[in-house]
């Protein structure tokens, strides 16, 4: 059974977990660990190591590719070499987390997890976008429905 760990700088992890819980409901399989000014890299590494040692099937969502939380988790997974079912997904968005977690927590579909993660990455790219008032004609009145 897969668990999810969210890691990031500042209050990113706990903030994302808060939004996640609001949208999908709280789950005892979803955890967050911030790397903030209150915690050293060494303490963060100890916490992550303990967590990794307890989880054979794990998806870690990290805020930034190459950031300290992502690097520490990736390095610890490689060092521990505990399971090929531990994944780190960096540069994460809430949409990506929800997409991946729906398979795990809602649909109970945990087969071919790497393929599911990659499919979710592709899906999320297709729903991202940008809007500006330049998208509308100057004399055209902009209504909220036009922006959605």
UniProtKB/TrEMBL annotation:
The keyword Transferase applies. PROSITE patterns: PTS_EIIA_TYPE_4. The keyword Cell division does not apply. It comes from the Bacteria. One of its GO terms (biological process) is phosphoenolpyruvate-dependent sugar phosphotransferase system. GO terms for molecular function: transferase activity. Keywords: Transferase. SUPFAM superfamilies: PTS system fructose IIA component-like. Residues 1-128 form the PTS EIIA type-4 domain. This is PTS mannose transporter subunit IID. It comes from Romboutsia weinsteinii. The lineage of its organism: Bacteria, Bacillati, Bacillota, Clostridia, Peptostreptococcales.
């Amino acid at each position: 059974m897969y668990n999810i760990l969210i890691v990031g700088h500042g209050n990113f992890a706990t903030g994302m977990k808060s939004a996640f819980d609001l949208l999908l409901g709280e789950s005892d399989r979803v955890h967050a660990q911030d790397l903030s000014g209150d915690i050293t890299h060494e303490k963060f590494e100890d916490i992550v190591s303990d967590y990794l040692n307890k989880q054979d099937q794990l998806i870690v969502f990290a805020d930034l590719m190459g950031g300290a939380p992502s690097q520490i988790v990736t390095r610890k997974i490689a060092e521990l070499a505990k399971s090929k079912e531990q994944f780190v997904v960096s540069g994460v968005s809430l949409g990506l987390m929800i997409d991946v977690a729906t398979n795990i927590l809602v649909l109970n579909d945990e087969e071919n997890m790497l393929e599911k993660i990659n499919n979710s990455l592709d899906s999320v790219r297709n729903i991202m976008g940008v809007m500006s008032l330049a998208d509308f004609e100057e004399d055209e009145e902009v209504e909220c429905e036009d922006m959605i």
